[in-house]
Amino acid sequence: MVQIILIPYKKLITLHLQTMSSTRNLSKYLNRDISAKAIRQKFLEYFINENNHKFIKSSPVVPYCDPTVAFVNAGMNQFKGIFLGTQKPKYKRVSNSQKCVRVGGKHNDLRAVGSDGYHHTFFEMLGNWSFGDYFKADACKLAWDLLIDVYKLPKNKLYVTYFKGDSKLGVPEDLETKEIWKQLGISDDKILPFGSTDNFWEMGLTGPCGPCTEIHYDHLGTTNRAEFVNKGLHDLTEIWNIVFIEYNRLNNGKIVTLPHLHVDTGMGFERLTSILQGKISNYDTDNFSYLLKAIHKNCRNLPVYQGKFGENDWNNLDKSYRTLADHSRMVSVCLADGIIPEENQKLRRVLRKVFLLSETVFKKEGLLRELSNYVVENLGPVYPELEKNISKVHQIIDYEEEIYKSLQLAASKDWEILTKENPKLLEVDVIETPSFIAAYKQISSAPPAEITSKLAFKLYDTFGIDEEGIAKISSALDLKFNPQELTDELEKAKLRTRESIICSNNNMYFDLVNEGIPKTKDNYKYSYSQNEGKYLFEGIETKVLKIFKGKESVDQIKQDHYCTLVLDKTNFYSEAGGQVGDKGIIIFGPDSFEVTSVENLNGYILHKGFFKSSGNTLSKNTAGKIYLDDEFRLSCMRNHTSTHLLNAALKRIKGATCQKSSKVTDKYLNFDVAIFGDKLSIEETDAIEKMILDIVKKEKPVNISEVNSQQLLEFDDLTLIPGEIYPDNGIRIVEVKVDEFLSREPCCGTHVQNTMDIKDFCIVNVKSLGRSTTSITAVTGDRAEMARKYGMELSEEIDSLKMNINDNIDKPEMLEIIVSTIKKKLNFNMEDDSVIPLSVKLECIGKLELITKQINDAVKENLRDFIEIEMKNALDSKVKTTGSNQKYIIHYLRSSMMLEKVPLQKATKLCPDIPILVISYADNTVKARCCVPKNLKTDKFNAEIWMKQTVASVFNSRAAPPKGQDGTLVCNMKAKKVHVQEWDPLLRDSLDKAQKYIEENI
Q: Is the dihedral of CA 223, 228, 233, 236 positive or negative?
């Protein structure tokens, strides 16, 4: 529905466009003058009001449904499915202003930013599209009339180009477009032919493409300068590109015709603004002037921006102004659209470049955060997601700046040494690429004759050094480097990857394709219902189409053999989206097939397991009925829906977070999340658990809808995973809404139909996986209830132990065994039945620490008694006699296990008249001491010899007398760490040797 209300020019003009759930008010951008807002407004009104186009809001700059580009780099990206013919357009004609980022690939403007006045990492693309409606003639006329009649550009300053054809592509010269421009009144000398580089448009290595015609503007316009078009002059620039999408480039490089003809246009908003405002540099327009002023406002110690370029900008200050202004816009937009620096190294490099500029040129910490406020204030009314996500933008900028400072601190010492050795390195911004130091060190240690394609690829693949970084290394070491060789090597690597993917599955996959086996219909996996609160998973009829033993195709399989079945249809879920595949059984008359795992091989669902029979064989084309394991599936569904609730709850509690990965099994769910800020506290964990339990108790429906990639962009508050590629069609949106709480994200998994079906939710573990990532594990349903019950029992067991400590303080070994047993229960595995809530676990750990301290304190207080009691017991029972009837004692002091420090001299003093050797073991550390009465020492037997040749040799430790004492009378073995698993055999060996030695030598 379109409702247009026109009011006199001096008043507001309100344009209300309703597409699905989006409403757009354009009047707030209108102004009498030629401000950027008014220019954007006129463009949209021209196409929407006057030429029957529909408004489509800008897509995010992260391409969620396109693996071929790192960022959305043109307005056409969100319409790719239409161009390919996989989707039907909602409207035949649309128009918008699209946010774009170009920092890599074919369209890489990053290196030029700041050096000239018109290249940007982030820019807005004004566009109009025709999906199988108008084509070349109307597209050219619409563009020409807008520029001449609406924006009033002088004709004599405009040039147009067209595609002159390319025999390698097999695409002929576009004479039709040339003729159209002539009919619109443009003279022949201003209609210029160009080749594929300039006039054949492609959005990536593959995908929709076609010849294009461009409109260029001459800022001078004094003479005909046709010969300088496309020569990179700052005063003769392209402003509008009109692409005639007729072809599709396949993975093999071949170009084929698309089913329908489309028009895709893009006019650089910043360049258009500079023309209409009479500026040569985009930075002199109000798209940037507010930011340049803001930079100076926050850095008053520096001169104001003066718009100097090249040699005139001798200290690169104005270039730094421009770079900072440009990058501030790009970073703010990317972060607001959900791109995470941790997942996008190009964005992280831009961020670190901004931090470096802020530190070295503008001398201002936190400058980017402050500038993001100005960006949001300027662009927020046009792109509301900026205003909505400003706190998230700030949180991530703060986090990344802290990382930058810590990396800089760590690298500074190494870098200082390297720059002294090679002053050329002073020109390198090392913090942008922390691995630069390691890469440089490796090459400089044994410099090669040149940086070959193989070495360049290693630097790229192993160290993450891009072409620019490699060029800096080559320059610093005076090594030859050809960037084109790196590009060629990267292309070869992509080809090798594609081939390896094909080869890894070639036996099974190609067998299936070559035989014309249809892909498995698995939509039945979403077919289940409820009856009186019980989930019903109906079995379905199926037929065996293919049998594999290993990866070899066989016609039949015998009983008890492990094999793989390909069926015509299935209701089993195959592993995807972090959720494990189903288990179950296929009934073939009297026989059965036990399914242990399910995988998806390019649409063929592989059922792996064992054929059970009383003697029959299973053959192709056998019909059967397939039943999944109800309890297994329902447990997975509970855990998967809970994973979504956990993700949403984390965002409410912690703000800027990003899912890294998830695992959903029948026993538990595991969710790894990046948190950009303080670590998750136990109080926050409890709050998250309470929030989810509240949603479970409120019995809210879990709604699932299916959309395509265009409809996906129409949702607000949609949680998407950066780096995840969603399909063009059949995207399932899973949504739970409870008051202010909203969980809404695409997911191919299976889910419960109501939150009440989760029954219970309990977080059982949280651990840190590095600087930002936190791993959370939780259980649901009956397992969560059991975890709470078991946790209560364990807590009561610890309380009982605490109450009885004083009564058993004389039995430290027994207490130690009890404490150790309880600790093992706390160190559970997620597959165990005996998991307990995290809050209870931490509480139990705290109690055990107090109990251990209580035991240790009591032991310390009664240390003399412990040793005296044990040594007196030893004297009564362990004093032995040698062949010469000489008494001696060799004893392991068992009470030492409970002591932090064991003064062995207290034990040996109790036996001054006989040889004594005592060993202690505390905190995984063994010590020993021996004493020999003066009247018993001989050349063969004394304290030092006894210790060195027996106990010290077993434990491979040094033996020496205490300082100032006679080693023949008293000797200590230096403390030595011994793992508890090795302790018992070493102890027995040392005692045996000590006894044998004294028996033989006294």
A: positive
